[in-house]
Amino acid sequence: MKQLLAATTLTALILGGTTGCFAEPAPADGGDQRRLRVGLAFAPNARMSPFTDDASLVTQLGVTETLVNLDPDGTVTPALAERWTVTNPSTVRLTLRSGVTFHDGTALTAQHAAAALQHATRARPVPKALAQIRLTATATDDRTVELRTAAPDPVLLHRLATPQLAILAPRAYQSDPAGPDPIGAGTGPFRLTAVRGTSGATLQRFDAYWGGAARVAGVDVRFLPDGAARAGALRAGEVDVINAVPVAQLPHLGDHRLVEVPLPRTVGLHLNSTAGRPFADPRLRAAVRAAADPAAIVASVYEGRVDVGAGLFGPASAWAASGRTGRPATAAAVPAGTRITLATYTDRPELPEAASALTAALTGRGFAVRTVVREYTALEPDLLAGRFDAVLLTRSYLLDTGDPIAFLASDFGCAGSYNLARFCDRAFDTRVTRAGELTEPAARQNAALQLEADLIGRAVVVPLAHERARIGTTTDVTDVARDPYERTLVTARTALR
Questions:
Q1: Three-state secondary structure along 262-329?
Q2: Which range of residues forms the domain containing residue 157?
Q3: Spatial distance between the Cα atoms of 307 and 92, rounded to a whole number of angstroms
């Protein structure tokens, strides 16, 4: 791989975990009539409705915005709200920016923002960031939104940064009973004008954007779940930007730019501990941990372009390495032909190959393994229903709330909304609840590492790798965002030379 990369004229920009853009001067006229062509790895499931997993698609494309953002260190920064005050442990008041207009021409008010958040609390399923709290939003005047929670919530502001809590125009909540419709209803630099099923979308520059008009006239989006097809479209000049560049395609990019950003995203094998299933036995889970070889998978499948899995929390979070301690490990049993089903998805092209490597390792250990591989949209209902013994997936542990404790509650709590391991331990839940009451970030992080040690010691999950974002662009593209949360990609500053 190293020799192949050296033989290409690839310009590799290996970037740290910071938000920002390629540094290029702004054009004097503030924009032109050229359009940016983007190829995305994930197609929408619900016409880009923000209450669904489509939420990050519309923020990545600069259509919707939230009240606040997060910087790479997890600090809350202004967005549609320019400042805020925490009046008590369960109440926050946010002051909105003046001069913000929705894409349909409606001026943003606190009444609109409060109504949008109230719609989110009534969504079914509720957005993941709100799953553990009861939130009430009210407008105290035209620019002030007051948020109250039923119990103190130290990370309420962090929750507001999730793409699922984007603020849309009132019209968005009236036309589609399945969820809000972002077409013509966002506040970002680009106005969504059409979504063509799972094939593509069209966006136009929004000249009244509060942050200044975008540099390109619009964005034409193609959804290309196949990694080779996505990279091929970039090479052929059919698109200007692609995300999730497969490792196998790196030697073939030619004279294109590559941005790599360490992500708070971990590839892991989640083991279904439901009673009556093989991995209800912690010793069989430990046998899986003993069979898996993360370093070998990183070297062979990812060709060294990711970091070896050290835990649930990776090198994108500096606090993880400095605070991690040893963990007691459950002894492994002999599988003796135990039959298991391992599932993964094709949307991340390295996952099926990693599943093959794991299947070989587990078979060698004594398991009888059946593998199921589908596109994620087809697989998700069965994942959430717990129909597989093991699930290999890549998961961002800061995506929904920017908070590691909320992630642990969501993915490993008895009532967790994304608990694919079906893990339920009341004592663990109690520890998560107590950790969630801590107000100091360092204390929350230390508690998260202790909880992580418990999960890995019991082999509820087997971490394999910590991912990096890989964005490919033509040399004509400037100012593509490098966001460790993968919430932004195209911004008002993105341009074509």
A1: EEEEEEEEEECCCCCCHHHCHHHHHHHHHHCCHHHHHHHCCCCCCEECCCCCCCCCHHHHHHCCCCCC
A2: 64-179
A3: 38
Whether the CB-CB separation of 216 and 208 falls below 8 Å is answered with: no
Residue type at position 278? P
Angstrom distance (rounded) from CA 387 to CA 152: 36
SS3 at position 24: coil
Tokens at 321, concatenated: 């390495």
Residues 21 and 160 in one domain: no
How confident is the chain (497 residues) per 10-residue block, as mean pLDDT? Answer: 34 37 41 90 90 93 97 90 96 98 98 97 89 93 97 92 96 78 97 96 98 97 94 96 93 89 95 97 97 97 94 90 74 96 93 97 98 94 96 90 89 94 97 92 91 94 96 96 93 96
Containing 467, the helix (H) or strand (E) segment is strand 461-473
Q: Are residues 283 and 414 in the same domain?
A: yes
Residue type for 374, please? Answer: R
Q: Give the residue among 437, 37, 462, 66 at the shortest CA–CA distance from 237.
A: 37
52 and 75 fall within a common domain: no
Q: How far apart are CA 199 and CA 215, in angstroms?
A: 25
CATH of the domain at 450: 3.10.105.10
pTM over 0.85? The answer is no
Specify whether the CB–CB gap between 398 and 485 falls below 8 A: yes
Strand partners, 341: 370
CATH code of residue 479: 3.40.190.10
**Rounded-to-integer distance, Cα 115 and Cα 442, Å:** 34
Per-residue pLDDT at 25: 38
Residue ending a domain, among 148, 179, 210, is 179
* Total domains present in the chain: 3
Domain identity same for 300 and 429: yes
Q: What is the helix, strand, coil percentage profile of the chain, to 5?
A: 30, 25, 45
Segment 55-78, tens digit of pLDDT:
999 999 999 999 999 988 788 999
Distance from chain centroid for Cα 407: 12
Q: Which residues contact 284 (CB under 8 A, 6 or more apart)?
A: 278, 332, 333, 335, 338
Which residue spans within 60-159 are E strands per DSSP? 68-70, 76-78, 81-88, 91-96, 135-141, 144-149
Res 175: pLDDT: 62
Q: Which of 152, 179, 206 is the last residue of a domain?
A: 179
Q: Is the dihedral of CA 314, 320, 322, 326 positive or negative?
A: negative
Q: Report CA 154 to chain centroid distance, whole Å.
A: 22
> Are residues 144 and 174 both part of a single domain?
yes
Say yes or no: 329 and 453 in one domain.
yes
Does residue 385 share a domain with residue 303?
yes
